[in-house]
Amino acid sequence: MILVTGASGCVGANLVHALVAAGEPVAALLLPGDPAPALRTLGDRIERRSGDVRDPDSLRRAMAGIDAVYHAAGVASPRPADEARMWAVNVDGTRNLLEAARQAGVARVVHVSSIAAVGYPDGCVDETAAYNGADIAFAYMHGKHAAEREVAAAVARGLNAVSVCPAAVIAPYCDRRDGWGRIMLDVAARRMAFCPPGGIAYIGAADLVAGMQAAMRHGRRGERYLLASGNAGYRELIDCFAAAAAVAPPGWTAPRPLLRGAARLLRAIEPVSRRCLPQMRLSSGVLDLLWRQKHYRTDKAARELGFAASQTLQSAVAETWRWLATEQQGAAHVA
Fold first, then answer.
1. Hey, which of 4, 5, 20, 191 has its CA 20 to 30 A from 36?
2. Catalytic residue IDs
3. What are the structural domains of the chain?
């Protein structure tokens, strides 16, 4: 039996659907009371287990009969108000999950990390890049890096675990509040005033699932693997979002020096702004990410896992937009 944590989120839901389609026995770890709409169509083809990575006792119960774990539970938010919860879930929760798996004798854990844990470069890097967290005030980045230290500690205690570091996930079941779903909807509604000058690596649902499964089968104990479908500039990405939604993209691309200067200014006043505006989504860390060309190489995953990206940016965006549009229509119908 395979346990998937974070099974109702973007990464977890895409993985659960793929595992079920392949005939694998799956237990989905869900927060108490989570209706998990992303899994509704699976009915009784999965086993739903209630638990919280912040609750070690619930994890010990969830491990009953489990042979392998995909740990996809996590919180990603730019908001200061969410930072304590992010650390509790992404770092402390990962430590709890790994220890529960070790105590239960689970044969293999794939920890779903992030490109954030490797660092956010201004260029193209691989898994060996020096972590540059001191340069960027971004809590999600620091938490994912700390979570990988928890994986290393668990491996040292005897757990068979491997980490995958996906690029920006552009896929169905995406986050419509703070994630790429929100950005696509903002572009569609013409709420985006400008295009950032930087870029990002991206990964679509099929490549993401294939990479995680390859890591489960072939990943070397204690190693990390970058997973990406490709690299793109934000202009290319935003233009693709706009084309999918059949709207005009924002015409102005902000200059790099402008965003770098704004990031420095925001960082200077952040002790005050964080207290006064705990729900703000724009921070110095976010601006620092927008001017950087955050590109990554996947040679190691290709060499050791047999990972071969198959999705174009256009195909990943089109698939995601179809899901978003359906969700929006459903919400409008209910309202």
1. 191
2. 140
3. 2-251+280-334 (3.40.50.720)
